[in-house]
Design a protein that fits this description.
With 184 residues, this protein is mainly alpha-helical. The longest helix has 15 residues.
Length: 184
Amino acid sequence: MAKMTRERRNPRPLDATRLNDMALAYVARFATSAAKLEGYLRRKLRERGWAGEGAPPVAELVQRMVSLRYVDDESFARAKSGSLLRRGYGPRRVDQALDQAGIAAAVRDEVRAAPAAQRQAALAMARKRRLGPFGPGAADPKAREKQVAALLRAGHPLDSARNLVDAASIAAAEEWAAEFDGDQ
């Protein structure tokens, strides 16, 4: 039996209506920022081309989605920040993720977690990765360095990483996370 080969068709170039439909479908399916929506639409235009008159109205379309509140950078930043903190990531990694999503610095500052929440995130990461007192036993110096490095890569400050890895017990680590004295 002969194999049938399917000829790949080139997708039709986009026009204003189709571009609008793609934007609506994207914001309906994904929580997104204005910058991410604009990047998506520009990528689709590169892939498929533009058949409309004049330049593609990407910026106007994104602005319309923002004015209709289909896209809200602050809500997106709060949700993304909360999600990353619950997963145990530190303030530096949260800030990087929001910056990559195109969130303005002022909005990133506004949604930045309180130091107490940052400590809880560090505790969650230590618990999840079995670092410090959550691990199988006392760590040798090399293993301790690796544990501190894991917390640093997760975006936590050096002093937080050291405090968690060096905690004498789980209770001591939880107490450290619960007591915030404002100097961190």
